[in-house]
From TrEMBL:
Organism: Limimonas halophila
Origin superkingdom: Bacteria
Pfam families named among the record's database cross-references: SQS_PSY
Protein name: Squalene synthase HpnC
One MF annotation (Gene Ontology) recorded for this entry: squalene synthase [NAD(P)H] activity
Amino acid sequence: MRAPVKLRARLEPAAITQPDDTGRMETPSGKWAGDENFPVASKLIARPLRPHVMAYYAFARAIDDIADHPELSPDDKVARLDAFGRALTDPEADDPALATAHRLRQSLTATGVPAQHGLDLVTAFKQDAVKGRYDGWDDLLGYCRYSASPVGRFLLDLHGEDRALWPYSDALCDLLQVLNHLQDCQTDYLTLDRVYLPEPWLAEQGEAVTALARDHASAGVRRVIDRCLDGVETLLPRAEALPRHLADARLALESAAIVALARALTGRLRRQDPLAVRVELGKPMKLAVAARGALGTLLARRFAPASTPDRPREEPRA
C-alpha cells in the first residue's frame, strides 16, 4: 500500500467553486457537480481532500465542455484541449484563460498525485473531438480507459490506496461511463453526431445510427442497449469488490454508495426507454439507494477489516 497523502500546501478555496467564463478558453455548459448522476466530493470524503477532488472535477468538467461544444470545430477543440494539457504540466504556465488547469496543477503538486490522471482525460476528450463512432465493446472500453478510469485512479492515489485496486476502480468508473452513454444516446447523436452504441451492433439489428433520432427505441435498438447493459453487468462484480478492499473507510463508503446507485440505474435502463424519456434516479431514490449501499459496507467493515486485493481475472467480453 502507498503511504497516505501528506498535503504539501493548502489549496485555495477557489478550486471548489464553479468557474465563470470571462477571459477563458473554456466553454461552460452550466453543468456542475450537483448535476452529475453520482456524488462528487461528498461529505463522505475527508474534508481536507475535498478541494483537491473538486479541482480535478473542475478540470474534467472544463475540458469535457470543450469537447462537447456544438459550435467549435474539431481542430479548435483539439487546440484548446492541448493547451489545457500543457498548462497542467508546465510550472511556468500562468495564462489566466487556463486557470482551471493551473489550480489542478497546484493541487497535484500539493498532494503528489501524478498529472497523468488529468492528461488521460485530455486524451479522451481529444478523441471525442474527432471520433464519433465505435466498433464494439473493446473499442468502447478503450475510450473509457482514458475518459473514466483516470477518475478512480486519481481518487485512489489521492487517498494513498494500493494501486493493485486500479482494476476494481476501473471497472466501476468504466461502467458508470457506459451508463451515462446510454442515458444520453439520443442527445449525443442529435447535438454532436456522436454515437457510443457500437455501430456494428446496430447494423446486426438492421438499424443505422439514425434510429437514435426516433421518439422511442425500436426492437433492434433496444437489443443493442440491452447488450451494452449486459457488458455493464459483467463489470459490476469487480466494481462491487472495491469497497471491501479500500483502506480508507470514508472512501469505501463513498464507493459503496456509487456501486449501489450504478446497479439501480442499470435496472432502470433495463425497464425504461432512453429515447422516450430521460432515464435517471430521482433525488429521493438516489439518497435512499446510496444510504443503503454505504450502510451495508459500514456494517460489513465492522466485522471484517479491509482485505488485501488480488489481481482480478479478466472479465468475459460482452
